[in-house]
Amino acid sequence: MCVCFSCIHLSSNYICQALRNQIALFTCTPPFTWTRPDDRSFLLHVSIDLLYWRNVKQSGAVFSSVLLLLFSLTQFSVVSVGAYLALAALSATISFRIYKSVLQAVQKTDEGHPFKAYLEMEIALSQDQISKYADKVLLYTNTCMKELRRLFLVQDLVDSLKFAVLMWLLTYVGALFNGLTLLILAVVSMFTMPVVYEKHQAQIDQYVGLIRTQVNSVVGKIQAKIPGAKRKEE
């Protein structure tokens, strides 16, 4: 188990180094000066590169690390997994610190602390960043609450029926899979479906269009037969 979490830690070190290189290229500034004009476009840029496997090594490292972590959670508790991860990280950093100290003593050099750049890196969130993220969370929460109120109080009968059918289907999904299994399937889909869609976009769009036409036809017939059900555009 310790070997597994050591692999996770080594992979995470590689991922951090790769992300720092991408940040330096993206912002045209040296590492550890993480200034960028738009956080959203930066995160979108990195996410697309990972999910579309632009760099196979980076995507493979992230994909395998996340899967290994999720599979570990299926066998061990969150506390155990967190403790093993912390031990693996501490084992790596302490070993590296001792190795560099011995190396400096043998070579009689004074390079300083091996993690000096990381220790001096600014990681604190500013008040503006906290306010911005808090506003976003508040906006999403209010939107979700309004949408749930609209569905449960049947503002639109067809939308409420769709929601009821979705919840009914989820009862079967919940009987077959637990939350972690669904999360694993979601991660696998995130790292496979974009690539498959990119390679077979024309065929997939054709079949999705056919399915959407059939669904809209069925929904239209239901709306026509249910009293009080109207299309939103009306």
What do you see in this structure?
This protein is an all-alpha fold and 234 residues long. The chain contains nine helices and no strands. α1 crosses α4. The N terminus is likely disordered.
Summarize the entry for a quick read.
The protein is an all-alpha fold and 234 residues long.
Main features:
79% helix; single chain; elongated
Fold blueprint:
Elements: H1 2-27, H2 39-51, H3 56-75, H4 78-107, H5 116-120, H6 127-152, H7 157-176, H8 179-199, H9 201-225
Helix pairs in contact: 1-3, 1-4, 3-8
GO cellular component, one term: postsynaptic density
Domain Reticulon: 47-234
Keywords: Endoplasmic reticulum, Membrane, Transmembrane, Transmembrane helix
Contiguous helical run count: 9
Beta-strand content bin: under 5%
Low-confidence stretches: 1-37
End-to-end distance, in Å? 60 Å
Return the average pLDDT rounded to an integer.
80
Percentage of helical residues?
over 70%
What are the secondary-structure elements, in order, as H or E? HHHHHHHHH
* Cα shape: elongated
Please tell me how large the radius of gyration is.
Answer: 25 Å
Largest sheet: none
Give the class from helix and strand content and strand pairing.
Answer: mainly alpha
DSSP E strands, number: 0
